[in-house]
Design brief:
The protein is of the alpha+beta class. The chain folds into two domains: about 100 residues, Roll (SH3 type barrels), CATH 2.30.30.100; about 60 residues. The chain contains five helices and eleven strands. The strands form two sheets. It has a seven-stranded antiparallel β-sheet. The protein has a four-stranded antiparallel β-sheet with strand order 8-9-10-11, with helices on one face. The longest helix has 17 residues. The radius of gyration is 18 Å and the shape is elongated. One of its GO terms (biological process) is spliceosomal complex assembly. It comes from Poecilia latipinna. One of its GO terms (cellular component) is nucleus.
Length: about 200
């Protein structure tokens, strides 16, 4: 079974009991953020440059402008981050999904600042308002307990202000924070605007 059918671009290779799939350069550069963001936090092998150098690690984030890939490796001395420039990427091979411990380690690399939250009723009211505001601006968002998740790479914690956003992707972080700064005090209920493109 593929780690995610939504991320599958290119051929699949079977080695033992594991399915491997590759995003070739043409697919990687032109598939867009929807695919890239779904590949975040998976272990990948990136082949780059004319010499076809291989780089392995957990895909932490992808820069949607340059298409550069940030890979994290965990060792005895902690975590190290390597950036592979987007123009050099020849192909990206997804090897596996993270286990819960690895997922938590990846998320903890950029912990949000601690903030005091409002009471439960006000927290629910604010969370619902932020979710509606982002949806009305075509930003993919879903609730995860008391948190909001944006495109699988950004987290908004109570009390859901711009400074309560955390993400390793600076571009998406900036765009969501700008939206929250202009959010009205009350966001009316209403349908999400038609269209398939998102606001990121």
């Amino acid at each position: 079974m593929f780690p995610s059918d939504a991320c599958r671009v290119g051929p699949v290779f079977r080695r033992g009991q594991t399915d491997y799939w590759t995003v070739m350069q043409s697919g990687w550069l032109h598939s867009g953020p929807q695919l890239w963001l779904r590949c975040v936090h998976r272990q990948v092998r990136v082949t780059a440059g004319k010499q076809r150098e291989e780089h392995r690690g957990w895909l932490l984030t992808v820069d949607p402008v340059s298409h550069s890939v940030a890979l994290v490796s965990f060792g005895e001395d902690g975590a190290s981050v390597q950036v592979v420039l987007g123009h050099a990427v020849e192909d990206v091979e997804v090897l596996q999904e993270p286990d819960p411990d690895t997922e938590e380690r990846l998320r903890s690399l950029f912990p949000p600042p601690e903030t005091g939250g409002p009471d439960p009723d006000e927290r629910h009211w604010r969370r619902s308002g932020v979710r509606r505001w982002l949806q009305q601006n075509r930003v993919p968002v879903e609730e995860d307990g008391n948190e909001l998740r944006v495109a699988h790479v950004l987290t908004i914690r109570a009390p859901y202000r711009p400074d309560d956003c955390s993400s390793a992707n600076q571009i998406i972080l900036d765009r969501v924070q700008r939206l929250l700064r202009v959010q009205p005090d009350q966001v009316p209920d209403g349908p999400v605007p038609p269209g398939t493109s998102d606001g990121l």
